[in-house]
Write a structure and sequence with these properties.
This protein is 82% helix and 0% strand. The protein is globular and about 55 Å long. Helix 4 (79-108) runs antiparallel to helix 5 (119-139). It has one domain (49-244). The protein has helices at residues 3-12, 14-36, 41-72, 79-108, 119-139, 144-150, 152-158, 161-175, 182-205, 212-244. The protein is an all-alpha fold.
Length: 245
């Protein structure tokens, strides 16, 4: 695709509107937090990076849901538009995850040496860094030119989105108190189960026989959901016990 064709595709497609939405949402989140916590810079930084983190997770969820939803329900309207939007949603997830990491590290942690922090924070930061690297790798290779250049490796790289999602949730639970509250746990775990069931249905209904790699991948994701659910509720109970003392 030539540069002129690419520009025409962007200007006439949904990607431009999603990119504009990313910019506007970034500004609105910053503005809302700046007004709400204008008298407390620490709370401002804390809530700002939490807002960016949750939005990144929501955009990642949307990107993960589009593929299986249209495979199971092919008569849903806007199939071509939404598949075109999927990559831009992934870019949005990487963008908000980057803002989340930047605000947390530079403002909240004052750009401290990670090795000087408590083990509790080191673990959370390592998980977040791994998830961010996966998201950025996919974002920078989300264009047709990268797909043609990388060939089969492009698909292998972009399958890491599932690992990135699991690690991102693990990161949120390990370092964020709000991520282990009942509303957050129910929302995250419930959404994960719905996406997992969608992918199982896609694998069972596909025309070709399900492969051993698909079975292995689904089993690993299912185990990850169970482990993360147990981990999150255990952290919630620990926090409740500490608060009750």
């Amino acid at each position: 695709m030539s540069m002129r064709s690419t520009a025409r595709h962007w200007l006439g497609g949904i990607r431009l509107y999603i990119a504009a939405g990313i910019i506007l949402l970034t500004y609105q989140l910053w503005q809302w937090n700046a007004i709400t916590y204008k008298d407390n810079s620490e709370l401002l930084a804390s809530h700002l990076h939490e807002s960016f983190g949750w939005v990144a997770l929501m955009w990642l969820t949307a990107a993960l849901a589009i593929g299986p939803a249209y495979r199971l329900f092919p008569k849903l309207p806007g199939k071509l538009v939404m598949r075109d939007a999927r990559r831009m949603l992934g870019i949005g997830a990487a963008w908000f995850a980057s803002l989340h990491a930047g605000v947390a590290y530079i403002v909240s942690f004052q750009a401290a040496n990670p090795l000087s922090l408590a083990t509790y924070y080191q673990k959370g930061m390592l998980l977040g860094a791994i998830a961010l690297i996966i998201l950025l790798s996919m974002a920078f290779t989300s264009f047709d030119g990268a797909m043609r250049t990388m060939g089969p490796w492009w698909f292998k790289l972009h399958r890491l989105i599932y690992a990135g999602a699991v690690i991102a949730i693990w990161h949120a639970m390990s370092i964020g108190v709000h991520a282990t509250g009942i509303p957050a746990l129910v929302s995250v775990i419930g959404t994960s189960i719905v996406l997992f069931v969608l992918h199982i249905q896609v694998a069972l209904r596909q025309e070709k026989p399900i492969t051993e790699m698909q079975v292995l991948a689904l089993c690993l994701v299912g185990i990850a959901i169970i482990v993360l659910s147990n981990y999150g509720f255990q952290l919630h109970l620990d926090q409740y016990a500490r608060g009750a003392r």
